[in-house]
Design brief:
Layout: E1 5-8, H1 10-14, H2 23-34, E2 38-41, H3 47-57, E3 62-65, E4 70-73, E5 79-82, H4 87-100, E6 105-110, E7 115-118, H5 128-131, H6 143-147, E8 153-157, H7 163-173, E9 178-181, E10 188-192, H8 197-208, E11 215-219, H9 225-230, E12 233-236, H10 242-247, E13 250-251, H11 259-273
Parallel strand pairs: 1-2, 1-11, 11-12, 12-13
Antiparallel strand pairs: 3-4, 4-5, 6-7, 6-8, 8-10, 9-10
Protein name: Hydrolase
Organism: Deinococcus koreensis
Pfam family, one: Hydrolase_3
């Protein structure tokens, strides 16, 4: 079956390590769009973070943000869907984790990703590239204010534990009602139950009338694994984490060697030859 949609992670996959879109990658994306293939960024970023590189990449259509929790059209602003972590769920998780692991801090990302409610002390741990936000602008809120309303993405971070270490503690809570993943950033990302990049991609494809067998997906991190496994063709870049490598059907070059572009170029060449 021909590829009708390309779903690509951004950081560590499409973007080079300096967060740029190379000229080769832009040319490949443009060629795919000219061949009537939908090109969709599928990212942990919120829309504001996608817009920072949208012009470089030529993204003007649908984007899947917040690890698949939020489907939004970059051109029209239309929201296709949003999935929230409920307030009672994140409250139960937060209090249980604090009891188990004092010092953990939380953020609630709300209202289409535009509202970022960080617990007091979180900004001191953060850098701009963590959330595409200046730490000085994050402010600091009491935990009750962070937990008060549902979150598109509920973030947890500890000053002394890596995301993988923190993940083991979250799993040990054995609490229901949420999904949890990480993207290589120094924090965990809690989503509504069942939500993943694959979850969001499946809904977008249903909206567009595109079968999963007609989807080519690219990724590099643990939060890409469900998408790589779900797509008809899942490709991990050469710098991918072991989880992403295991989930993918094949391997391409690293992000800094334009691995995504290399696969698209071959795909289009084979299509024109056929």
């Amino acid at each position: 079956m021909p590829i009708r949609l390309i779903a690509t992670d951004l950081d560590g996959t499409l973007l080079r390590s300096d967060l740029s879109v190379s000229a080769r990658t832009r040319t490949a994306l443009d060629a795919a769009r000219a061949a009537r293939i939908e090109v969709v960024p599928v990212t942990a970023r919120q829309p504001r973070g996608v817009r920072r590189i949208a012009e470089q990449a030529g993204f003007t259509g649908w984007a899947l943000c917040g690890n698949g929790a939020h489907g939004v059209h970059l051109g029209t602003g239309e929201t296709l869907f949003e999935a929230h972590v409920q307030a009672d769920v994140q409250t139960a998780v937060a209090h249980a984790l604090i009891e188990r692991l004092p010092g953990v801090l939380f953020v609630s990302v709300r209202q289409g990703g535009e509202v970022f409610v960080a617990q007091e002390g979180y900004a001191a741990l953060a850098h701009f590239e963590d959330h595409k936000r200046e730490p000085a602008d994050m402010g600091g809120h009491p935990l009750d204010a962070v937990l008060e309303y549902p979150s598109l993405k509920f973030i947890m971070r500890h000053p002394a534990f890596t995301p993988r270490e923190l993940l083991a503690h979250v799993h040990a809570l054995n609490l229901p009602g949420f999904a949890v993943t990480h993207s290589g950033a120094p924090f965990l990302e809690v989503l509504a139950e069942g939500v993943s990049k694959a979850w969001g991609l499946e809904r977008l494809c249903a909206h567009l009338g595109i079968a999963r067998d007609d989807v080519l997906a690219f990724g590099d991190a643990p939060n890409d694994t469900e998408m790589l496994a779900w797509a008809g063709r899942g490709v991990a870049v050469g710098n991918a984490d072991p989880e992403a490598l295991d989930a993918a059907d094949e391997l391409t070059l690293t992000n800094d060697k334009d691995g995504v572009a290399a696969v698209i170029e071959t795909l289009l060449a084979q299509s024109s030859a056929g």
